[in-house]
Amino acid sequence: MSKSMRYRPEIDGIRTLAIVPVVIYHLKIPFAGGYLLPGGFLGVDVFLVISGFLITQVILNELQDTGSFSIKNFYTRRARRIFPALILMILASMSAAFFLLSPTELPRFSLSALAAIGFVSNVFWFFSLGEYGAQSGLLQPFLHTWSLAIEEQFYLIFPLLLLLIKPTRRPALAFIIVIALTLGSLAAAEITTSFNQQLSFFSPVSRAWELLAGSIMAFALTFFPKVAQPGPRMVWLLPKIALFVLAVCMFTIDLAQWHHPGVITLPVVLATCAIIWCARPQETVTQLLSTRPFVFIGCLSYSIYLWHFAIFAFGRLSSVEKPGALDMLAWVSLTVAFSIAGYYLVEQRFRFAASARAFGLALTGSLAVIVAFVVIESTTDLLDKGRIGDLAVLYGGEFYDNEALRNQSWGILDRLAGEGESIGAWNAHEPSENERTRLWFDKPEATKVLIIGNSHSKDMFNALYLAYENSDALQVARFGMATQFPQEQREQLFTAPNFQNADVIMISTRYRAQSVERLLSSMIRDIKAQGKPVAIVGSTPEFASPGTLPFYDWYIRRQGKKTDLKTVNVLAYGSAVSRVSQIDRTVQQIADRNALTYLSRRTLVCPAGSKSCTLSTSQNEKTMYDQSHWTLEGALFFGRRAAEAGWSDRLRAAARL
After folding, report:
1. Neighbour-count burial of 641, counting CB atoms closer than 10 A to its CB (0-12 exposed, 13-18 middle, 19+ buried)
2. What does the pLDDT look like over 112-133, one tens digit per residue?
């Protein structure tokens, strides 16, 4: 390594400024109606700037000192730096997964482990989290490895780019090229974020400018030191301003409300660059960042980053109640303990002390264990044993696996679609080909009802399909639509054979308070213009859980063997979300104003006057797999209630309106 690559303790201090907010952000500590440090995720952006700066300095110094750059040595150093701690965390997580994950969670966990070691986690999680109804990202132990993948993808391309543009021969031209690439990536990030924030969040193109910003610093300080050196006033002022900017951004920027990454991220990136640029031994911020606590945490930052999210995820997966202060303290303590142990016993030894042969054997062996885990999981049921037996006894069946129940709830529509199309959660907000092009009605005497809407229309379809499957009174079909009833889908609906042959169109969806009046009224008007009668179904009750699990699961796991399932129905009545009832009243008013048949979905779940909501049937079957969606058992139960309430007669009457 070049002498010019002296150790800079303040860089480790900046890493502390990055990792501590990230950890706090992922804890989700309730504060002032939200969470403490809502912009803590910006610590990742700080990391990216540091990485771009350091990696560019390493390459440029080697080129200056030797006249060449060894790709082999570079990637060997990266492997020694990245793999030992990463693989240790993955192997430990596999042990926890065996005991804590359900059979439907294990396949995703296994694939995410492969994505992590293959440095394609950003791609994997973009598609996995984009699925409707996907499990919360806070419950995915390897979700955080997306940023590691972004870095490694950058490291795969950037050194080759530098060799191509020959910065030591033509530094000015190379510098201009790097600046141009930075601006291009920033523009791409801003544009992509404007139409698909999740794509931009996980995209290496949208993130490259943050790494390249660090590269610009390295270029300037390496090739143009006289011009690039800040004056005394800047050295005194800029780091203090930069520290203030970082604090303001991390305390105020909320990912859900701001277009990140993009121009909104620029202050954080520039502030990080300013601290690096103005770092001097006598400067106050530099001195603070060079103190032993900052440097120590900074040295552990990679290990902390790897361990914290996995530990937090498993902590949440193993919790029944919402995590409290003691839970979070335990998670942080475990994170620190595993990070320190991993840093000294594994990370440092394999990075600096282990021979090439020892490192190669350890890497090959541990990768073989991970691959074996994935193969066993995907080809056998050996890994499904874990805690599943106890849960099956507690639930009296397989009702413990909500993801499996969700998948099963799409089973009827999947079967009706035939082998040419696979129906699943993607069908929640858009119609399938089967729904667009085929005629389902084949009972001439039955009242033909086409049910339209989002995933809640699937539940209503299941209920009425199961209740009237062997009856000539009613026959149902379904057409999936987004909550906004977009114009393109309306046009597809009006040309669908089921629409043209339906006696009545039933709107059954999850309504939104801010748009229900406008969207529902518009949809009613358009359907009537096509000459079709309309029936409106109200909102299904939604139940707020005191814990991390849906209300039913929270109760049954909290009570354990003392579970009284009649009690859960009584308690559920008090946990129903009042906002949904308010929306329901608006929906009913719209139906009355348009002289339409209104059918109460709430009374199917919470019968009038009972002060009880049926989350568990008399046969101890779970009716909901989340806060509002119905299991197949729930759909059958509520469908029978609809039949007993005379829904078929009311829909037949609606068809004559």
Report:
1. middle
2. 999 999 999 999 999 988 765 5
Look at residue 257 in the predicted model and tell me its pLDDT.
Answer: 85
Mind spelling out the 3-state secondary structure of 120-159? CHHHHHHHHHCCCCCCCHHHCCCCCHHHHHHHHHHHHHHH
277-315 burial by CB neighbour count: b if 16+ within 10 A, else e?
Answer: bbbeeebebbeebbeeebbebbbbbbbbbbbbbbbbbbb
Q: How many CB atoms lie within 10 A of CB 133?
A: 18
CB neighbour burial string for 188-215, b if at least 16 within 10 angstroms, e if fewer: bbbebbeeebeebbbbbebbbbbbbbbb
> Across-strand partners of 597?
535
- Tens digit of each residue's pLDDT (9 = 90 or more) over 123-176: 999 998 876 555 678 889 999 999 999 999 999 999 999 999 999 999 999 999
Spatial distance between the Cα atoms of 33 and 44, rounded to a whole number of angstroms? 24
Distances (CA, A) of 23 to 44, 243, 247, 273, 311: 11, 18, 15, 22, 11
Q: Can you give the pTM of this predicted structure?
A: 0.86
Q: What's the chain's length in residues?
A: 657
Q: In degrees to the nearest 10, what's the CA dihedral of 620, 626, 630, 632?
A: -60
Selection from 448, 447, 442, 526 nearest residue 481 by Cα: 526
Chain-wide mean pLDDT for the chain?
93
Instruction: Write out the E strands in 281-381.
Output: none
Element (H, E) at 391: helix 388-395
Tokens found for residue 609: 């006057």
More confident residue, 515 or 19: 19
- H or E element in which residue 34 lies: strand 34-35
Tokens 């406008």 correspond to 518
* Alpha carbon separation from 489 to 246, 449, 453 (Å, rounded): 44, 18, 11
Q: What percent of the chain shows pLDDT beyond 90?
A: 82
**Residues 249-300: tens digit of each pLDDT:** 999 999 888 899 999 999 999 999 999 999 999 999 999 999 999 999 999 9
Quote the CA–CA distance of 615 and 622 in Å, as a whole number.
6
The span from the CA of 604 to the CA of 587, in Å, is 17
CA 475 – CA 449 distance, rounded (Å): 6
CA angle 193, 196, 198 (to 5 degrees): 90
In this predicted model, what pLDDT tens digit does every residue of 447-489 receive, in sequence order? 999 999 999 999 999 999 999 999 999 999 999 999 999 999 9
